[in-house]
Amino acid sequence: MRKIILLFIAAHLASICMAQVKVRYLLTENKIDPISIDVLNPRFSWQLNAGDKRNVMQTAYELRVSSIGKGKHEVWKTGKIMSDESMYITYKGEPLAAGQKYMWQVRIWDNTGKASAWSEPATWQMGMLTAADWKAKWITPGFKEDSVNRPSPLFRKGFSLTKKVKSATAYITSHGLYEAQINGHRVGDAYLTPGWTTYNKRLQYQAYDVTNLLQPGANAVGTTLGSGWYRGHIGFSNQQNYYGKDIALLFQLEVTYTDGTTATIISDESWKSSTGPVRFAEIYNGATIDDRMQQKNWSTASFDDKSWSGVTVKDYTKSTLVATVNEPVKKHETFKPVKIFKTPKGEEVIDFGQNLVGWVQIKVRGNAGDTIRLSHAEILDKPGNFYTENLRAARAQDIYILKGGGEEVFEPQFTWQGFRYIKVEGYKKDLNAADFTAISLYSDMKPAGTFSCSNEMINKLQHNIQWGQKGNFLDVPTDCPQRDERLGWTGDAQVFSRTATYNMNVHNFFTKWLKDVAADQYPSGSVPFVIPDVLGNNKNEAGGSTGWADVSTIIPWNMYVAYGDKQILENQYASMKAWVKYMQDKSKNDLWNTGNHFGDWLFYSVNDDTDGSSAITSKYLIAQCFYANSTQLMINTAKVLGKKDDEAYYTDLLAKIKKAFFNEYLTPNGLISSDTQTAYVLALQFDMLPENLRQQAAQRLANNIARYGNHLTTGFLGTPYLCNVLSRFGHEDVAYKLLLQDTYPSWLYPVKMGATTIWERWDGIRPDGTLETPTMNSYNHYAYGAIGDWMYRVIAGIDTKEAGPGYKQIVIKPTIGGNLNNVVADYETNYGKVSSHWKLDAGNLLLDVEIPANTTATVYIPGSSSSAVLESGKAINAVPGITAGDATDGYVAVNVGSGVYHFSIAKP
User: Fold this and answer.
1) Engineered SS bond to 181: which of 55, 299, 733, 840, CB 3.0-4.6 Å?
2) pTM for this structure?
3) What is the pLDDT of residue 908?
4) Alpha carbon 839 to chain centroid distance?
């Protein structure tokens, strides 16, 4: 009996333990166990794992933080804090030391009063906090450079470690790009480091845990440098040396021995320099790798570097150095050839089946001096030949020269290409698919959302949207990845930013880039066309275009809404204000009708406009709308940050802006002077019209779409809001017609034409197979992929309340239509997974919803009566924890807590 009782008690305790809420996914400054934080008061976040329990909320938490290593002690303990906050809890303990490692844990109390166990420990390491923390010296090659081809310099240093190593961190940055090795092994798995920032104001360094690469006794470190964005060809007009002519390295290795003593190895005058196999490397033009120039084992301790040159120490600044905020560029998916063929011209071409960004790795055997050329293209022309004219001046060609004597494996360095096809020249045997692998490169952002439905064309569109983002989110949000551009165009980034949050976690990605938006903003408040700004300077401003410069207000707000991080707004507030002030300064009587603007870029246009069918929208009308929108965002931001005086100021300004719009652009009957889709979309999206004229304007928009045969005519600025506006004003059916349209111009037309990414132009390939003008015709250009926002937020219905940003207060409001039978959408928020899965089954609607712990949600279920709604087969009013209101506007609003729910409503 005693044994039975003990077993019963053990089982009972186990069940309690199983039911207990657990704390997981601990983040420090939005990262898992980062090793280089230069924020003096980092922030902590975590998630709750409640299993299958419903309505779980955190009511309190406790944090404890300790230093690790010599002198280990507790540096902060909060005690029990009564709060449901689990995101961005700011450290308020002892001052943190550069290079020091810390550990933290958290436990929480749930809304039943139960305390969780302490979480598994998370760690972080502080980086360099001041310029004085850098003992390393900037070094440049000691040999005379080839100023034309600029072969990549090699740097090396041998050193000895006298004791057993406990831990070691390498801090590295460069003027140009770098790759490092220790004892013949690559340091880290990041590429194109240190990334692209406004180098003269902000230069990122990376930190690496290299403990396992070191050995007792003799060691060696080696680095290879490339010109990259710093001094390579970038921007237009074959411009180079934008940030400087030099190429330089800064390296510092901090070693801690098991006995607690330390050693520091730095870049200084004792290093050696030479060149190696990378004979040429430019972002636009590709790389030349000559294997005959390999210096075997050059980064190992046994290598003899007597013939190498010395280095030159330079007094370059360290005051601009900052820790890396965003995820580095890494290798991701790989692709094997889906087809190998000869074109009508006799070109040997490989098709990888996907337009991607990265490079091709090849395996080859041959004789010394044999040369292989790989050229890259996105498409074939109408006859089926290899097409590179749209790359403009970009050569986009990798050249490999064999050393002979066995199989050699090549891939380029310090460059990348956008391509689906490669042309192979110089290969002395039949092309073998096993010898070629395409490797995708993009910033290592965590996947966030998935969307699929019963329409395969829409699924392909979603695929294309995601691959457009992958290919162009390569450290900065580039407009295109293939031609002689690849710049951080601000307009493209802002229109796509909310969609971007659904596909991937872009919190850190945009946090970093927005710092450069502020850094490169002109003293006038104007924002450059591209960030980092390589098209203008303070004397020659290349910026101020409406819808582009509004990146300074739109993306910070979108990131706040998506992630609930007020610090983004605090960081960018001065920049946001400066942009609105610029528009004020350019306005007269609150009307902004000056300056040069891109307008509704690449809107629908016919070649011969004698019939007036091109959808031309006044650029100044657009400017006034975006002026109002940015001012509204200032009101929103001031309210969030508690800046009441600013909130009142911008509220007054907004009323004047809207009045000026009304007087200038509206007829007494509510007709907008530019009778275009974009004019109505922007006026409605930004609430430029009095409420009594809005439904009328929405009907005019719907009528306009019908006049064009249910086609859109919008460009970069109108397209992102088009379907959202239609849905908001009761024209969901028209929005679905636009989404499902598959003839030009439409989202599905490129899909029908075989696109695997989003095109720059609606008709990059015309219906007859001919191609749009090659001077501006990218086949990987994500801006029009902004429809993805509507697919997640309206079709699937996943959204967040602005009053509870970051999905603390969730909205699930699916929109049934478009002949879709089912939709499956999942999204990883800061709190955990949100799901909205709906399907029609014999006319009945089934809606499966998942809400993460420590959040609440309002689920809007299509229907006319709450009495018809069931949850897991029960009337919702009989289910504990669920409250339902009356049906309004065709939906029953149901308030729920966390958990998994299965709603159903019978066909009326």
Assistant:
1) 299
2) 0.96
3) 56
4) 31
